[in-house]
Amino acid sequence: MASSASDRRYLPLGARSVKIVVLGAFGVGKTTYVATISEMRPLRTEERLTRAGQFVDDLTVDTKSTTTVAMDFGRRTLGGDIVVYLFGAPGQPRFADMIRSLLHGAMGGLVLVDTRRVDESYESIGLLEEADLPYVVAVNTFPGAPAYPEDVLRDALSLPCDRPLVFLDARFVKSAKRALIALVTDILHPAGSPAP
Ligand SMILES: Nc1nc2c(ncn2[C@@H]2O[C@H](COP(=O)(O)OP(=O)(O)O)[C@@H](O)[C@H]2O)c(=O)[nH]1
Ligand SMILES: [Mg+2]
């Protein structure tokens, strides 16, 4: 049956949906990433950072005046029939239970890392390992941040050798998409599984 223009607003018939969560410390670029990659207007839950939060929020990340208080949400279709639903997590450790809820039903996670604060990524990796989900680590390259070689970063993160590590700039679609493809490939065709 021929599809009309209005049908094309909907997902392709037989599309495979994949839920993923974008994790990482406060200010690593999660909200930016979801907005960059989403083909629909992303949902955001940003609230202003104020002095009232100085004991629980990091007010020293100078590019930040707001913070995600629940989640970001976006959608991206890959290859015409894989529809990725992206949930961007809040970054602060006090939201760990919220992140665990977001991980329900997820097929994997993308962990964004800022090389100026690598140690703040352990929590996200820990939550994904606790949930026994595959994940990809993506170093978001900020100007002025140290550029460590891959093996140094893997060491610092204690990253198992079967976990992919990629570099991206969360503001650019091509770069953001490469990381998403690495994760979805790893989810749908895990290393060691027979070729598709
Ligand atoms: N230079 C640069 N800035 C970025 C990049 N990703 C995010 N930012 C900026 O970093 C700030 C924090 O990003 P945000 O997405 O809110 O971080 P979140 O707390 O992880 O959601 C924002 O001002 C972004 O514009 C990046 O890849 N490069
Ligand atoms: Mg955010």
Helix content range: 25-40%
Corresponding CATH superfamily: P-loop containing nucleotide triphosphate hydrolases
Domains, number:
1
Oligomer: single chain
- The span between the termini is 29 Å
Strand content: 15-25%
Strand order of the largest sheet: 4-5-1-6-7-8
* CATH fold node name: Rossmann fold
Structural class: alpha/beta
Radius of gyration: 17 Å
Strand segment tally: 8
Low confidence ranges: 1-6
Q: List the ligand species.
A: guanosine-5'-diphosphate, magnesium ion
Q: Biggest sheet: strands, sense, closure?
A: 6 strands, mixed
| Element-by-element helix/strand order | EHEEEEHEHEHEH
Description:
The chain has 196 residues and is an alpha/beta fold. It has one domain: 3-Layer(aba) Sandwich (Rossmann fold), CATH 3.40.50.300. The protein is 25% helix and 23% strand. The strands form two sheets. A six-stranded mixed beta sheet has the order 4-5-1-6-7-8, sandwiched between helices. The longest helix is centred in the last third of the chain and has 16 residues, at 173-188. The protein is globular and about 50 Å long. The two termini are 29 Å apart. Residues 1-6 have low confidence and may be disordered. Guanosine-5'-diphosphate (GDP) is lined by residues 24, 26-32, 63-64, 68, 91, 140, 142-143, 169-171. The site of guanosine-5'-diphosphate (GDP) has 18 residues, from α1.
